[in-house]
Amino acid sequence: MPGLYSAAMTSTQVLESPLVVGRDATLGLVKRHIDDARSGRGSLLLFAGEAGIGKTRLIRAALRQAATLGFRRSKGDLAPQDLLVPLGSIADLARSMDRAEFGDLAADLLAMKGGKGGDSLASRRILVHEISDRIVAAIDKPTAFAFEDLQWADELSLEVVGELARAATDLPLLLLASYRLRRHGARHDPDSRDRPAGSARCRRRRP
Ligand SMILES: Nc1ncnc2c1ncn2[C@@H]1O[C@H](COP(=O)(O)OP(=O)(O)OP(=O)(O)O)[C@@H](O)[C@H]1O
Ligand SMILES: [Mg+2]
C-alpha cells in the first residue's frame, strides 16, 4: 500500500526522554528553590559547567517542574554573536513570553530595548532599572525565567539579570541561568568571562 507507506514516512517527530540521570541532589535543590519562590522568596540558580554536562537539561527539568506547580515561564536563548547585541537575552526572553500569561510585558520590554538611553554609563543604568522595574512590577504570581548561555550575554543583559536576582528574594520569582565554563586545562583567555560570581557548578556525573 504505497499511499499508507508514504504518509507514515513524511511524519517525523523527535522524542526526548525528560529523565535527568544522576542529578538527584541538584533536582532536590531545584525543588527547594521552586517551593521558596512559590511562597514569595525567589532566587537565582546558576548552573555553570563545561559544554554538554547537562545545564540545559537541568533548566528544562526545572521549568517543567515549576510549570506543574503553577508557575508561568519564559526562556531567553543566546548564540555566540549575541555578545554584541545589547539586551539580547532580555529580548529573547520577551519574545518567548505567552501573551495570555504575561500580558503587555513582552511588548513593553521590546519597546524599551528599542528606545534611546544605552550610550552613556548613567543612561545605561537608567535603562537597566527601567527594564528590571517593569519586569518586577509584573511578578504578581509565581514566575520562572530562564537565561541560557550567559557566557554570550552582553553587559546590559547581565545587569538586568543581576537586578532581577536582587529583587527576586521578595518575589514569587525563580531565575534559572546557565553559563558554559571552559574545559579544564584550556589555555587561559584573559578576556573570557570564566568565573561568574556566585555560580553553582555542575559536577561531572560519575560513570
Ligand atoms: N543528567 C542527564 N541525564 C540525561 N541526559 C543528560 C544529562 N545531562 C546531559 N544529558 C544529555 O546530554 C546532552 C548535552 O546536555 P545539555 O545540552 O543539557 O548540556 P549543556 O551543559 O547545556 O551544554 P552546552 O554548554 O553545550 O549548552 C543532551 O542530549 C542532554 O539531554
Ligand atoms: Mg546548554
How much beta, percentage-wise?
5-15%
Main sheet characteristics:
5 strands, parallel
The best one-word shape is: globular
Order of helices and strands: HHEHEHHHHEHEE
Per DSSP, the total helix count is: 8
Poorly predicted runs: 194-200
CATH topology tier name: Rossmann fold
Overall CATH class: Alpha Beta
Class by alpha and beta content: alpha/beta
Mean pLDDT: 87
Terminal-residue CA separation: 47 Å
In helices, the fraction of residues equals 40-55%
Q: Give the spatial strand order of the biggest sheet.
A: 2-3-4-1-5
What are the main properties of this structure?
207 residues; alpha/beta; Rossmann fold; 5 strands; binds adenosine-5'-triphosphate; binds magnesium ion
Describe the SSE topology:
Blueprint: H1 2-10, H2 24-38, E1 43-49, H3 55-68, E2 72-76, H4 88-95, H5 99-102, H6 105-114, H7 121-137, E3 143-147, H8 155-168, E4 173-180, E5 200-201
Helix pairs in contact: 2-3, 4-6, 6-7, 7-8
The structure holds adenosine-5'-triphosphate and magnesium ion.
Adenosine-5'-triphosphate binds near residues 21, 53, 55 and 57.
Summed up, what is this model?
This protein has 207 residues and is of the alpha/beta class.
Describe the structure.
- With 207 residues, the chain is α/β, with parallel strands linked by helices.
- It has a single domain (3-182), classed as Rossmann fold (3-Layer(aba) Sandwich).
- It is built from 8 helices and 5 strands, in the order ααβαβααααβαββ.
- The protein has helices spanning 2-10, 24-38, 55-68, 88-95, 99-102, 105-114, 121-137, 155-168, and strands at 43-49, 72-76, 143-147, 173-180, 200-201.
- It has a 5-stranded parallel sheet.
- The longest helix has 17 residues, at 121-137.
- The N and C termini lie far apart (47 Å).
- Adenosine-5'-triphosphate binds at residues 20-23, 49, 51-57, 178, 180.
